Amino acid sequence: MGAYKNIEEINELAKSGNVYIISASPNAQADSDKMAWITKYLPDFPIQNICFCRLGENKAKIIEKVFAIKVDNTCVLLDDYTKNLTEWENVGGVGIKRLTTVADNSRGLWRGLAIRNLRDLKGAVSLAWVGFAASLFSNNK
């Protein structure tokens, strides 16, 4: 499964019900193919928490429009595309870069949290939330 080694980490997080997939694709056929992949490899992922958008659309705007979720610093986006992560963080969310052979950040454009292996996702999310808690504490002095 290459880039999807340890995908069970996503499946495990999905059991909370508070995890969403916003996947960009070029067309409806790609949406269908992605949905087939998701149902095969993420069987515990709630179907109602999945949506598809077109390449280049702002995922922060999509999650607000489709799921009525206002992105803030408790909202974490795992993505391999720096543009999506930057847009997410610009509205107050936390981005985690998924490093792959295709999206390896070799140009150094992403300066935030990053993981190569999905088994590191829970730790990265914990770091994001620790940062959130620290900012709350420092703002309440």
Overview of this protein structure:
It contains five helices and five strands; from the N terminus they run H-E-H-E-H-E-H-E-E-H. It is of the alpha/beta class. The chain has a single domain (2-139), classed as Rossmann fold, CATH 3.40.50. The strands form two sheets. A three-stranded parallel β-sheet has the order 3-4-5, sandwiched between helices. A two-stranded parallel ribbon has the order 1-2. The model is unreliable at 132-141 (pLDDT under 50).
What is the CATH superfamily classification?
HAD superfamily/HAD-like
Physical arrangement of strands within the biggest beta sheet: 3-4-5
Care to count the β-strands?
Answer: 5
- The structure class reads alpha/beta
Figure out the total of helices.
Answer: 5
The main sheet comes to: 3 strands, parallel
Radius of gyration: 15 Å
Distance between the termini: 48 Å
Task: Give the C-level CATH assignment.
Answer: Alpha Beta
What is the approximate shape?
globular
Task: Label the CATH architecture.
Answer: 3-Layer(aba) Sandwich
Number of domains: 1
> Which regions are unreliable across 5 or more consecutive residues at pLDDT < 50?
132-141
Q: Proportion of β residues?
A: 15-25%
Question: Which labels suit this protein?
Answer:
141 residues, alpha/beta, Rossmann fold, 5 helices, 5 strands, disordered C terminus
What's the short version?
The chain is an alpha/beta fold and 141 residues long.
Write the layout of secondary structure elements.
Layout: H1 8-14, E1 21-25, H2 28-41, E2 50-54, H3 59-67, E3 76-79, H4 82-90, E4 94-98, E5 113-115, H5 121-139
Parallel strand pairs: 1-2, 3-4, 4-5
